[in-house]
């Protein structure tokens, strides 16, 4: 048996993504069929359309989302009707990284090949050819069929748009602060890039008790959002004295942590200038696969500075997603402030292309509206 659905399909190259009917097979042992309720529009989808992360197969776009359990296979400890957040990096649970408790570094995840743990896909297009779900989830589809490791149950009280964002931007940004950087109360930080992930980093810094939270962005609109989220200071990225201004706000010697929430090489190369001796740069924003940057190792060595890579917020979804949901419900994380315009599935492609304009909050594909 299969479930009929509509997805946003992309064949790669110069092809234009489009809505098309698909068939989703029924869940097998250890699998979950999810009826999607909300999906975030993330820059990683734009990377795919731009060819920065090329694939040699047709994919169903979307990787940040939440929904309701519609059916389960054998040996699944979830019930139909449970609200779940989808994780786009379901770990294998067997490799060295997983055994070491670092599932975000899993080397055997089926998500790497845009499929299930066994390398197959549960999706078929109407032409009879297979479609692979982007990062194993394909959240712009009306239904997603995923392994149990790719879903995390959250309370029904969490609004679907918030739950969707927990699955990528929020977990990545807050995890970058609490897990990767381990920011302590009273420390200082600059966040370069106040888009979705940057906004979550700001919330994480506020939660951690950072004394100075400085946002840098080219958009006045996003700097205003940053202030609403808890940034103590803002600096326009186009200001030629931006580095000196940030260092001055932090007391003159620089910040303890500089978070690169963009991933553009020219930003990455210059971000060390914000950091004081003994401080750290945290690379969070994703670049194209072949991006290169140059560094000056002498300064890093004599200043005792560090560069930290951050994949998925160094998060363990089964633990961290639920924790973030609890903090939201307790009023300690105002995640609603990150939710932007809700749009129908038909506008998903338009919203992805619009990410080239750095303004506003995270758009949400709302599957309850037409």
Please tell me about this protein's structure.
The protein folds into 2 domains: 2-153 and 334-366, Alpha-Beta Complex (Quinone Oxidoreductase, Chain A, domain 1), CATH 3.90.180; 169-312, NAD(P)-binding Rossmann-like Domain (Rossmann fold). It is globular. The protein is an alpha/beta fold and 370 residues long. The model has no long low-confidence stretch (mean pLDDT 94). The chain has helices at residues 43-49, 96-99, 160-181, 196-208, 220-229, 242-249, 265-270, 297-303, 317-329, 348-353; strands spanning 2-10, 18-25, 31-40, 59-60, 65-72, 83-86, 123-125, 130-133, 143-147, 151-153, 188-192, 212-217, 233-236, 255-260, 275-283, 306-309, 339-343, 362-366. The longest helix is centred in the middle third of the chain and has 22 residues, at 160-181. Strand 17, helix 10 and strand 18 form a beta-alpha-beta unit. Its cofactor is Zn(2+).
What does the secondary structure layout of this molecule look like, with pairings?
Layout: E1 2-10, E2 18-25, E3 31-40, H1 43-49, E4 59-60, E5 65-72, E6 83-86, H2 96-99, E7 123-125, E8 130-133, E9 143-147, E10 151-153, H3 160-181, E11 188-192, H4 196-208, E12 212-217, H5 220-229, E13 233-236, H6 242-249, E14 255-260, H7 265-270, E15 275-283, H8 297-303, E16 306-309, H9 317-329, E17 339-343, H10 348-353, E18 362-366
Parallel strand pairs: 4-8, 11-12, 11-14, 12-13, 14-15, 15-16, 17-18
Antiparallel strand pairs: 1-2, 1-4, 2-7, 3-5, 3-9, 3-18, 5-6, 6-10, 7-8
Helix pairs in contact: 3-4, 3-9
Family: Belongs to the zinc-containing alcohol dehydrogenase family.
Keywords: Metal-binding, Oxidoreductase, Zinc
Pfam families: ADH_N (PF08240), ADH_zinc_N (PF00107)
